[in-house]
Structure formats: structure tokens, C-alpha cells
Write a structure and sequence with these properties.
The chain has 462 residues and is an alpha/beta fold. It is built from 19 helices and 16 strands. The protein has a domain of 215 residues: Rossmann fold (3-Layer(aba) Sandwich), CATH 3.40.50.1100. Strands 4-5-15-10-11-14 form a six-stranded mixed β-sheet, with helices on both faces. A five-stranded parallel β-sheet has the order 9-6-7-8-16, sandwiched between helices. A three-stranded antiparallel β-sheet has the order 2-1-3, covered by helices on one side. Helix 6 links the parallel strand 6 and strand 7. Helix 5 runs parallel beside helix 6 and helix 16 packs across helix 18. The mean pLDDT is 95. The structure holds pyridoxal-5'-phosphate. Pyridoxal-5'-phosphate (PLP) binds next to helix 11.
């Protein structure tokens, strides 16, 4: 299986190469050259199997000869061994026809652990084999960074540098990034927004001297391996509600578009998904784009669902690639125009996007009201991101089709917003109860490419 760039100008790579490199050299994102299919019998056979076994079956066709079957099974087992729930991604019922997929039982309490724990194990297996060392650099609005640090801390062949927007992540998110004591962990607080952090990471990947000099590797949600890991739970949850013999819909709290795009891939593989609903907070560029065809950033407003405070959703480029009928040049042009002041999606592409995705938006008041109402009605405490999803799902539900809303983080990761909305203080799970007592370690950096590159060069072992 080879991987091609959304912009059509970079060489195609194997799964392992695409995983280790992240962003393509033409600025594009990697996609499989074709999407493997699972037929109804393959999907039906997932019923009742362990999460790890389902993960193996869903992901195996994508990885080519990167790992043997036995190696890949071990990688998957190790990745999910540290989860606090035997089902890994349990489904709970909110009300008739509406379900929550709990994706927050990993070590950092957000769904990012599903991909990051797997990537950590895959990097280790691959680098051990080659004897090479890499510098992982990532931007985070909070959850990616903590998940990456948790996945890579203490690994021999990796330094991990995470840029997060200073003052704009929750205390739990920050502490998860700043309290690990391993020497290969570097938390960097940048003066700026998430979009600034993400732009500097992109700049580093486009600075080829630097990129090759420090052997840069990316684990942001642009990394194909992360999208792939997230495809799995669409299958396991849909099957537990009767797929492929019954259709289900999904609502996905969306920021960088990685999670919901994984759902699109699941459908392209053959999973009968009815609606795939993109739920945004006030930072609603994706909702506006799907509604009007105008793809224009408006500046980021901080919200109580900070992991979705994003204007330029990097993975949307992957959806654009399919919407523009595999035309890399058209994608490159859209992305260039977007960087300038925004762009208008062509009629054909917009129609195709609308066949793939529904969308809705939830403002701050409705987010809080949904946390409160759900607590009152069901005794489930939602994190603010999940609440955005539940509110949009309620607005978009077709009563004839079961709706699964992705619960992307544990409420204790965002205790202030949850307590303000519901009056309930969500406690951290026992296994991380001492988080507030551990000393922090962080470096403040300017929003300046040269300064960040110098710091990284100094920090890596020579
Ligand atoms: C990252 C994140 C999201 C957004 O996911 P994307 O894949 O970036 O769209 C939503 N909720 C939480 C809690 C997150 O950490």
C-alpha cells in the first residue's frame, strides 16, 4: 500500500515512511492510494471480538509490510494496555436512539490517546529496527500534546517537543504536559494561539535543512497513522448497534477534522454510516463552509471547549482532495487562497462535501445548558466538547437512525467549565489523582520560527 500527497507533487511513500514523516514535502497530507474495502461479512464478523482484534482487522490492509501480523498484534496490545476500561471504547446510552461513545479511558483522558498510544508503539518498533533517532514536534490546543508526551515519554530514540498556546489550555492539560520528568520531554509554551503554534510546526517541516538536520517527525493530526487508528472505533461502535445490517449516524465534536475524517474513511471502507455530523463551537469555519461554500477564517475566539478552538482545520484538506476528485493542483490552489484571505469552494466540490458531511454549531450558552440538561436527565457528566456534540446531534437526529455522539474527553479534564455548568466537580480518576501535586517544567517561547528552531537544535543530544 502506497501513500500519496493531497497536493500531488511529493513522491509516494510506504505506510512506515508516511508515518515517520507526517507532512508531505509539497506541503500536502498523505492518503492511501486506494481505500481498502470491508464487505458486509467482514463487518458482521467484528461483532463480539476484543477491541484489539477489531483494530487489527480494520487497520491491517493499510499498513502494507511495515510490520508482520505478529508484530502488529503486539503493537496494538501494548498501545491499549494502559486504558482504564476493558472495552477501550465503551458505548453508553443517553436516551432512546442516542448513544455516547466514551473515548476518554486512555492515560490522558481524551480520544487522542487512541491514536497516540498506537503511534508511540509503532515509532518505537520502527526506530528500533533502523537504529535511527527522531525529533517529534507537535502543536497542540491541549489534548494532542498531553497524549503525545504520554505516548513518547522515556522512549530511547525520540525527543518530543510540544508547542501549546500559553495560557490557553486547561490546567489539567497543561499539567499533563509539564509534569513528566523524563529528559526527552520538552513542553514549550508559545506566545500566541493554537493556529500560531500549528503554523510554526508547518514552517519547520517546510524548512528542509532544519527538518533533515534534526530528523523531524510529526505526530499532529496530519499524520495518517493517527487518522487510521481512529477509524477503528467507528466500526466497533456501529457493529455493536447492528451494523452492517442497520445504519447508524455519528456526531463528532470537531477541531482539526481528524476524528470526523476517520469516520468518512470508515464509510468509504464500506461501513454503512448514514449521517456524519461535524459539530463545531463558535469557531465555526467548517460549519460555515459546508453551509455556504465560503471557506474563510475569521480569527479564533477562546471557548470552554478549547480543543476545538481552531480555524484552519488541517485534515479538511484530505476531504477537499476527494471533493476535488483527486486533483492535487486544485487542492494546492484552495490551500494557497485560504492562507491569503479565504476562498470559495467550487460547486462540484461543495456538493460532494455535503454528501459526505452534515454540520452544526453550538455556542457557549448552549454548551453549558447541554452539560446541565444531560446531567439532570441522565446522570452523565459531559465534557464541554462532548456537550457541543450532543447539542448538535439532538438538533440533527433522524429518529429512525441511531445516533452515536463521540465523547471526546473526560469531564475531569475540563473541571471548571463542567462545574460552572452543572454545579458538580468532576473528580480525576484515581490513577492520576496526584496530578496537581507534581512539579511543572516548561519553556516559554516567542512566536518566532528561528528562536524555536534554535532551541530544538540545542536540546537534542549531539
Ligand atoms: C482534539 C479534540 C477534538 C477535536 O478533534 P479533531 O480530530 O481535531 O477534529 C474534540 N474534542 C477533544 C476533547 C479533543 O481533544
Amino acid at each position: 500500500m502506497n501513500y500519496i500527497s493531497t497536493r500531488g507533487q511529493a513522491p509516494s511513500l510506504s505506510f512506515e515512511e508516511a508515518m515517520l514523516t507526517g507532512l508531505a514535502r509539497d506541503g500536502g497530507l498523505y492518503l492511501p492510494e486506494r481505500i481498502p474495502q470491508m464487505d458486509a461479512a467482514d463487518i458482521r464478523a467484528l461483532a463480539g471480538v476484543r477491541y484489539e482484534e477489531a483494530a487489527f482487522r480494520v487497520m491491517r490492509p493499510f499498513i502494507g509490510d511495515a510490520f508482520t501480523d505478529a508484530e502488529f498484534r503486539e503493537i496494538i496490545d501494548r498501545a491499549y494496555a494502559g486504558f482504564g476500561h476493558a472495552a477501550r471504547a465503551p458505548l453508553v446510552q443517553l436516551e432512546s436512539g442516542h448513544f455516547l461513545l466514551e473515548l476518554f479511558h486512555g492515560p490522558t483522558l481524551a480520544f487522542k490517546d487512541f491514536a497516540m498510544q498506537l503511534i508511540g508503539q509503532m515509532f518505537e518498533a520502527s526506530l528500533k529496527r533502523s537504529g535511527k533517532r527522531v525529533s517529534i514536534v507537535g502543536a497542540t490546543s491541549g489534548d494532542t500534546g498531553s497524549a503525545a508526551i504520554e505516548a513518547f515519554r522515556g522512549l530511547d530514540a525520540v525527543d518530543v517537543f510540544i508547542l501549546y498556546p500559553h495560557g490557553r489550555v486547561s490546567e489539567v492539560q497543561r499539567r499533563q504536559m509539564t509534569t513528566p520528568t523524563e529528559a526527552n520531554v520538552h513542553a514549550l509554551a508559545i506566545d500566541g494561539h493554537f493556529d500560531d503554534a500549528q503554523a510554526r510546526v508547518k514552517d519547520m517541516f517546510n524548512d528542509f535543512d532544519f527538518r533533515d538536520g534534526v530528523r523531524l517527525a510529526g505526530v499532529n493530526s496530519i499524520n495518517w497513522a493517527r487518522v487510521l487508528a481512529q477509524v477503528v472505533y467507528y466500526f466497533t461502535s456501529a457493529v455493536s448497534l447492528g451494523a452492517p445490517d442497520r445504519k447508524v449516524s455519528f456526531t463528532v465534536p470537531t477541531g482539526n477534522f481528524g476524528d470526523v475524517f476517520a469516520g468518512w474513511i470508515a464509510r468509504a471502507m464500506g461501513l454503512p454510516i448514514d449521517r456524519l455530523v461535524v459539530a463545531t463551537n463558535r469557531n465555526d469555519i467548517l460549519h460555515r463552509c459546508l453551509a455556504t461554500g465560503e471557506y474563510r477564517p475569521e480569527g479564533v475566539v477562546p471557548t470552554i471547549s478549547p480543543s476545538m478552538d481552531i480555524q484552519v482545520s488541517s485534515n479538511f484538506e484530505r476531504a477537499l482532495y476527494y471533493a476535488y476528485d483527486h486533483d492535487g493542483r486544485a487542492v494546492a490552489q484552495v490551500m494557497d487562497e485560504l492562507k491569503a484571505s479565504g476562498t470559495t469552494i467550487s460547486q462540484g466540490a461543495l456538493q460532494s462535501l455535503r454528501e459526505g458531511f452534515h454540520s452544526g454549531r453550538c455556542d457557549e450558552e448552549d454548551t453549558s445548558a447541554t452539560i446541565r440538561a444531560t446531567w439532570d436527565a441522565t446522570g452523565e457528566l459531559l465534557c464541554p466538547h462532548t456537550a457541543v456534540g450532543v447539542q448538535v446531534a439532538n438538533a440533527q437526529r433522524d429518529p429512525a437512525v441511531p445516533m452515536i455522539t463521540l465523547a471526546t474527553a473526560h469531564p475531569a479534564k475540563f473541571p471548571d467549565a463542567v462545574e460552572t455548568a452543572s454545579g458538580i466537580h468532576p473528580p480525576l480518576p484515581e490513577r492520576m489523582a496526584d496530578l496537581y501535586d507534581r512539579p511543572e517544567r516548561v519553556t516559554r517561547v516567542a512566536n518566532d520560527l528561528g528562536a524555536i528552531e534554535t532551541l530544538i537544535k540545542e536540546r537534542i543530544p549531539h
